[in-house]
Design a protein that fits this description.
Largest sheet: 5 strands, antiparallel
Radius of gyration: 39 Å
Mean pLDDT: 89
Strand content: 15-25%
Structural class: alpha+beta
Shape: elongated
Amino acid sequence: MSLNLALTSAVSGLNTAQAGLDVISNNIANVNTEGYTRKQFVAESVILAGRGAGVRLSDIINHVDQSLLKDLRKQHSAVGLLESSNKYYQRIQDTFGTTGSNSSISNRINQLQEEISSLSTDPSSVSQQLSAVQAARSVAENIKAMSETLQTLRMSADLEIENAATLMNNLLANISSLNSQISINQAGKRQVEDLQDKRDVALNKLSDLIDVSYFSNADGSVSVYTRDGTTLVDSSAATASHAARHIVGPTMTFAGKDFNGIFAGVRDITSGIRDGKIKGLIEMRDGVLPNMQAQLDELAHNMMTEINRVHNRGTSYPTSINQITGSRTFMNSATQTITLSGAQAKVILHDINGAEIASSNVLDAAGINFTNGGTVNALATAMQAWVRLQDAQLVNATVAVNADGNMAIDLGTETVGIAFRDEESSIKGSDQQDVQIDIDLDAGGLNDRTYFGFSNFLGLNDYLISRPNLSLWDTGFKTANYTLGIPAARTLVFTDTANPTGIPAGTVIVNPGESLEQIAANVNANAALQGRVKAEVVPEGSGERLRFEHVLGQQLVISEVGGRIAIDAMGINFSSNGIAQNLAVKQTLIDDASRISRGEVKLDTLKGTYVLAEGDNTVAVQMADLLVSKVAFNPAGLLGGTSVSFSDYAASIISRNSTEAAAAKANLKLQEDLKGALDLKAAQASGVNLDEEMATLIVYQQTYAASAKVISTTQQLFDILNNLIQ
């Protein structure tokens, strides 16, 4: 009996040593396999009838520190976010350049100032006129290109989210499949360690994309959730999906549902994702890039507004302006009324020598005879009637609002020109002063917006133009906890092209203390506005804006019953969103650079008539001074309100991006180092150490040899015993 027991024990030792050698050889073979963890052979003694009967395999276990592994996966998510952010910051820098670069927008604005300054010293120079126009085109095209790049990057980020969601879906399906295999093998007492390694690799890759939480189940499976509790893998895998947009514009926001959500099954998990590559892409698409767009729009809007304000004061003599179309678009010129105050707007007709043919104040009863508070159409009619009476060549002259809603003037002859001058009083030749123009946008009897400069208001002699989104209105930049500070409830009125005096029942009451979110909800709940106007709160920088959009694309007007208390408190106005992407020099200047304003209409005191002089540089000097003067900028994106020059504001946009890019790069390096340290610890705890494996291999080799020797000796003893019996 003892010989049988010895043989059994030796055989078990041989088998156990062989199993140990199998584990070691597998460890050595997978020393460079991604995600493979060192397997440890665990043996236990066999007891029969209270006596030792050899050894057997108890278990093969993974050397995995689960707590360390969870920390490592969190770090995977952190690095994934920063990697995607850093990549986009670098792409932005490649396009925007640095503040000291000759091709930077700030340097191009400086070049524009230099060209206009040179024009002011030689206003008759044809080459200098061309240079001034070309410099402005360079600025406009650069801003436009920057804006287009931002939208291209947003589209790229959205496409990357779609690809990441597809990868995420494959990983979830893989984890679910491995869960099933592990559960089946574990129930059948079969090895599951290699399957667990594969599942860990899939979980690591999933953590690169999105921050997840998970826990192990009794059957060996793991359940995976988003950090806010959405189930990704349980008894089965959720289907992850995202449909990217292939056309992206400045007005598109996730808050406004212009971008599709990231779904796990039927649940949108976009807002619940807090880390990982996908989160970095979301932040770029919905945060960083739109913030930069807002800053570019603020720059473009201010440049266009301020430069046009000055440029509209002047004229281009000796080039006569006899055909001109304004850039302001009126929603309904038959109902919208205007009121002039604070100064006098004057219209001057002159001959090819710059001498006055006729002039009139817009409000002069003996001249143009526009009745203050009249409609835009009435203004056009009064101007046309007056112009036609001043010279036989002008009998067919037209002044009217065209089909596009713009004021258009055509004198019908090239020998007569038209010019405009705002003066502080009705006295001919009094000092230049921009007239104040108030417009009633919805024919509600109250003025809704205020502008300065007659020609500037109509946009008759603009230098820079854009194609504003007339169906979009925004509030000013507000802090995230903003509430409306007004003394009492007010009523907002919504008007569109189809309803120029107000959408029937399209009014919304706003109350003191309401948040932008509450106001948006009230607008969207108004049955009369549904299908026509929608409101959304758009995150921007550290705050937000309330945006109103006409969903049918019609021109939208927002006014207020009894004044502008709530509108002024919220800063509601035509949106400047997207202006940068459409910024351009007016085509008439591109076609004929001699139409750039250099001088202005002045009074010949000897003759008592207005005259234009070829060498006059008054307006050119004003524009050159403007380009180096401080201008008020509203908060936009991550830049606060400030008063700086255009060039300095442009430099601050680039500088801010450079600072954020440098911070992202440094943070990425820090997080990568931390991830590397955790990887090293995980490798030390779970990885294969060839020195240890070789040492253990020798032990099992010797064990195998010893067990074989026992079997050989036992066999000899059996032979001796058999010979004795025979």
